[in-house]
């Protein structure tokens, strides 16, 4: 086996040290993880903003706009009740409904500063309605018994129809319910107008004066509600877009990580494990008594230092063996 001992053995190719390789590997891992962490933080912050906008702004404003429409309808109902029998309780209920409407719109303005122009118009029209109502209360005289009795019958029929509609509201959506309420309101206007047309032209004129700002407020509230629900839908679309983007980023990062791991699995055995195997083979030859081994050591690092130490050890043992063989018996 002397030919094996004289065969040059490349123990380590030219490269950096093992410590540097570990540092490079950790640096690669950090280069992969740092963008992932920053992207995760970005997606969390962006998703949090979208959800906060939907939960804290758009959805509440849409709901409050709907409630404000209901309050205005209640104010119109109590307005008619007051003009029928001059009940102060109905007038107070009207004022309370308008006060709740104003509070709702003020809250909407605070939540959505970009809708300030629309909410200011709603408040102005509400104040105009309230002002005209106050003027009408001053101008309006006591109703005749005949007209009051007839209109009271109309209102009772309207209230019965409204109660029936509300009891069946569970089968309808909110949009359908609001549309039905608007239709009932128009029907009541027509019935009251036809009842008072011949007997009390002054009241008919007052009703028409109050209808204009009230209808304007209802239309503006409907537009505000529509825009707010559109904002909710846009937020949902943006959230879905972010989720899709996060999925693609995860796929790309996972693919890059897989490629890097495969590359490292091929590079490390060739540059680290193979020199150690060659060094073990050289040591096995020395243990078997073959000290005629030539090392071909290149590069730097801990494995190369170990190979040089083994080479020096084998050379020292070989020199001692040669001196022992050459000494006289």
Summarize the structure.
This protein is mainly α. Helices cover 84% and strands 2% of the residues.
Give a structural overview.
It is a single chain. With 329 residues, the chain is mainly α. It folds into two domains: 2-41 and 244-326, no CATH class; 56-230, Four Helix Bundle (Hemerythrin (Met), subunit A) (Up-down Bundle). It has eight helices and two strands. It has helices at residues 2-5, 18-85, 88-111, 116-139, 145-167, 174-196, 201-287, 302-326, and strands at residues 9-12, 295-297. A two-stranded parallel sheet has the order 1-2. Helix 2 runs antiparallel to helix 5, helix 2 (18-85) packs antiparallel against helix 7 and helix 5 (145-167) runs antiparallel to helix 6 (174-196). The radius of gyration is 45 Å and the shape is rod-shaped. The model is unreliable at 1-15 (pLDDT under 50).
């Amino acid at each position: 086996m002397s030919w094996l001992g004289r065969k040059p053995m490349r123990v380590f190719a030219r490269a950096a040290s093992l410590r540097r390789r570990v540092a490079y590997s950790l640096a690669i891992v950090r280069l992969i993880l740092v963008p992932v962490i920053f992207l995760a933080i970005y997606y969390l912050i962006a998703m949090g903003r979208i959800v906060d906008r939907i939960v804290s702004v758009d959805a509440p404003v849409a709901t409050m706009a709907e409630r404000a429409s209901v309050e205005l309808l209640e104010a119109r109902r109590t307005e008619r009740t007051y003009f029928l029998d001059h009940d102060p309780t109905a007038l107070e209920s009207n004022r309370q409904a308008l006060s709740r409407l104003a509070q709702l719109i003020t809250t909407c303005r605070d939540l959505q500063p970009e809708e300030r122009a629309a909410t200011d118009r709603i408040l102005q029209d509400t104040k105009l309605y309230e002002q005209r109502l106050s003027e009408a209360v001053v101008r309006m005289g006591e109703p005749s018994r005949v007209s009051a009795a007839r209109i009271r019958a109309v209102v009772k029929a309207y209230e019965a129809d409204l109660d029936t509609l509300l009891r069946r509201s569970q089968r309808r959506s909110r949009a359908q319910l609001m549309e039905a309420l608007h239709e009932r309101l128009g029907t009541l206007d027509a019935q009251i107008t036809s009842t008072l047309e011949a007997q009390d032209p002054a009241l008919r004129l007052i009703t028409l004066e109050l209808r204009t700002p009230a209808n304007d407020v209802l239309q503006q509230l409907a537009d505000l509600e529509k825009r707010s629900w559109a904002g909710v839908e846009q937020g949902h679309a943006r959230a879905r877009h972010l989720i899709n983007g996060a999925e693609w980023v995860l796929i790309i990062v996972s693919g890059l990580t897989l490629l890097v791991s495969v590359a490292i699995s091929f590079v490390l055995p060739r540059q680290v494990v193979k020199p150690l195997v060659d060094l073990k083979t050289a040591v096995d030859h020395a243990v078997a008594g073959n000290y005629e081994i030539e090392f071909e050591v290149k590069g730097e690092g801990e494995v190369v230092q170990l190979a040089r130490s083994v080479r020096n050890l084998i050379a020292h043992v070989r020199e001692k063996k040669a001196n022992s063989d050459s000494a006289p018996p």
